[in-house]
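not sure who needs this but someone in the group chat was asking about Protein-glutamate methylesterase/protein-glutamine glutaminase from Bradyrhizobium barranii so here u go. i didnt clean anything up, its just raw.
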Amino acid sequence: MSVAFAGNSTTGPSRDAGPLRVMVVDDSVVIRGLISRWIGAEHDMEVAASLRTGLEAVNQLERINPDVAVLDIEMPELDGISALPQLLAKKRDLVIIMASTLTRRNAEISFKALSLGAADYIPKPESTREASAADIFHHDLIQKIRHLGARLRRRPAVASPPLAPATPAARAPAVVRPAAPAPTLHAPSSGVLSTRPFSAHAPKVLLIGSSTGGPQALMALVTELGPVIDRFPVLITQHMPPTFTTILAEHLARASRKPAAEAVDGEPVKPGRIYLAPGGKHMRVVRSGADAAIALDDGPAVNFCKPAVDPLFTSAIDIWHGNILSVILTGMGSDGMRGGKDIVAAGGNVIAQDEASSVVWGMPGAAANAGICAAILPLNQIGAKVNRLFAGDRS
């Protein structure tokens, strides 16, 4: 299923008219009040409605006509996962951000919501009395509303593939959309973005970083990487909290039909498997005798993220030097750009997802604008390019 921003079945103000209109739907009066105050303090967004149940949201959608909905999962009368398809049926381009506490059940529902058309998810803190948890929730929520809402107003979104369901049918390779024409990419001050030649160093490891829109992008990409995974280690950092990464690893294993799991501190890094940074921990690689091993770090957030991409990218240089291929997929912010610069300086290569196929062109855009990319490609062309590079093609 797509992220479902294409086409608007309701009438109302044009997409670029005024602040983003946000509908907050949560049965907790405390959470509704908190989110509403945060939104009200921003110059580019406003609270269009604050509602207690999914049923109220469905019944009042045409009248409210929001751009973005923050939708709780657990509510009386009509819960979030049941309200989601009804809201999208009434307004297909509504940006829906699912909100839930960190339980396995809610994480599974959030993944299901992505496959049904939700744009993203956000974990709610167990208690808003914990200042650090509330600060992270505040920062992440406002950024997601701003960036996903801005993308909606700029142009229709490119369809994203679904997450792999837990059924035997999911083992069939995902159908990949025909490639869209590559857009002309413009840097703020230097005209058309340029790419650098691929390094002559043969890659010995694949590193991937992603954030907003990443679960869908990763599911599509790993289905095409079987030959690479069989012969080389693949390490992934996806901005995601604990419990969610556990479930993402399970989805990656089903989609790729290869071993995939959250990385464990001290375990050796070997070909034939996917290592996923666990939520709440930075994943680095260190030397262990003649081999590489996982090192998990409980240090402070990097680029507002934990796990973050930069620590993985930078640490890998001590192990593989210039024999690194890194891929930066869709996501907010600039995480991965600094580590990507270090990889290029060491002789490795960086590929970035292009703007048209990204849910948010923050992370890959930062790398592209920094001039460190050897290729800037649509999502459905990245897998084939990665396979060719690991097979010896350096063009």
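also The two ends are 34 Å apart (CA to CA). if thats useful
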